[in-house]
C-alpha cells in the first residue's frame, strides 16, 4: 500500500492551520482535480446514448464512488485520531514543525495568514469593482505561491518525511483497529482514482473536436 494514499487523508498537513488554504483556493474559484475533467470542453455529443454519453454516466458513477470512499475513510481517520489523543498531538507537532520551517525559510506564516484572510474577505465582498476583484485574485495567487514554495521546501526535507511517515503508520494502525478492512478500502480508492483518471482522459479525447476519433 502506497503511503501517499494515506498521506492524502491527512489533509491538515498540506494546509496552513484552520483550513485557510482550502478556503483561499475556493475564493479563487478553484475546483478539485477530480471535478476538472468533467468541466473541460463542451457538453458530450451523443446524448441519445452514444459512447460519449455512456462514458459520461460511468464517469459520474465513478466520481460518486470516489466521494463515498473519501467520506468513509475521512470519518474513519477522524475516529481513529479521536480515540488516540497521542496521534492528534503528533499531528499538531508536525504542523508546528512545518510552520516553523516555513518561517525559517523566510515566509512569515502568521503575517501570510492575515493577508490571505483579508484578501479572501475582499473577494467575498460585493463592494469591489471587477478590476479590484482581479487585483485581489492576483494578490491571493501570489500569496499562495509564496506559501506553497516555503511549505514544499520544508516538506522536501528528509526529517519532515521521516516524521510524516511515522505519523502515517501510526494513523493507519489506529484506523485498522477501528476497521480491519481499511487497507481494502484504501486499495479500492487507489483503483477508483486510476480508473476515473483514465475514463476522464478518454472522455476528453472523444470531445476533442469533430472527427477526432477516441482511442
Notes on the structure:
- It is a single chain.
- With 215 residues, the protein is mostly helical.
- The chain has one domain.
- It contains 9 helices and no strands.
- It has helices at 3-9, 20-27, 36-39, 51-82, 85-104, 109-124, 130-155, 158-178, 182-206.
- Helix 5 (85-104) packs across helix 7 (130-155).
- The protein is flat.
- Mean pLDDT is 78; it is low at 1-25, 29-48 and 209-215.
- Residues 1-35 form the signal peptide.
- Residues 52-79 form a coiled coil.
- Keywords: Coiled coil, Signal.
Number of helices: 9
Q: What spatial form do the alpha-carbon principal axes imply?
A: flat
Supply Rg.
21 Å
Q: What is the N-to-C succession of helices and strands?
A: HHHHHHHHH
* Poorly predicted tracts of residues: 1-25, 29-48, 209-215
Report the sheet with the most strands, covering strand number, pairing sense and barrel closure: none
Number of strands: 0
Number of self-contained structural domains: 1
What's the end-to-end separation, in Å? 31 Å
Which structural category fits the helices and strands?
mainly alpha
Mean pLDDT: 78
Question: Percent of residues in beta strands?
Answer: under 5%
Helix proportion range: over 70%
Amino acid at each position: 500500500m502506497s503511503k501517499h494514499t494515506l498521506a492524502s487523508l491527512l489533509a491538515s498537513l498540506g494546509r496552513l492551520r484552520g483550513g485557510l488554504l482550502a478556503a483561499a483556493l475556493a475564493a479563487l474559484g478553484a475546483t478539485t482535480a477530480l471535478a476538472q475533467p468533467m468541466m473541460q470542453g463542451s457538453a458530450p455529443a451523443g446524448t441519445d446514448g452514444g459512447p460519449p454519453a455512456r462514458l459520461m454516466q460511468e464517469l459520474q458513477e465513478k466520481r460518486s464512488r470516489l466521494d463515498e470512499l473519501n467520506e468513509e475513510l475521512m470519518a474513519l481517520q477522524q475516529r481513529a485520531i479521536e480515540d488516540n489523543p497521542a496521534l492528534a498531538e503528533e499531528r499538531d507537532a508536525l504542523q508546528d514543525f512545518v510552520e516553523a520551517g516555513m518561517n525559517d525559510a523566510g515566509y512569515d506564516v502568521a503575517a501570510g495568514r492575515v493577508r490571505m484572510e483579508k484578501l479572501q474577505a475582499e473577494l467575498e465582498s460585493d463592494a469591489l469593482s471587477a478590476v479590484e476583484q482581479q487585483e485581489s485574485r492576483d494578490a491571493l495567487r501570489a500569496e499562495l505561491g509564496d506559501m506553497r514554495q516555503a511549505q514544499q521546501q520544508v516538506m522536501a526535507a528528509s526529517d519532515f518525511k521521516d516524521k510524516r511517515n511515522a505519523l502515517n503508520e501510526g494513523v493507519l494502525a489506529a484506523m485498522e483497529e477501528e476497521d480491519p478492512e481499511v487497507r481494502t478500502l484504501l486499495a479500492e480508492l487507489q483503483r477508483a482514482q486510476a480508473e476515473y483518471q483514465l475514463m476522464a482522459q478518454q472522455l476528453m479525447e472523444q470531445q476533442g473536436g469533430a472527427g477526432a476519433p477516441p482511442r
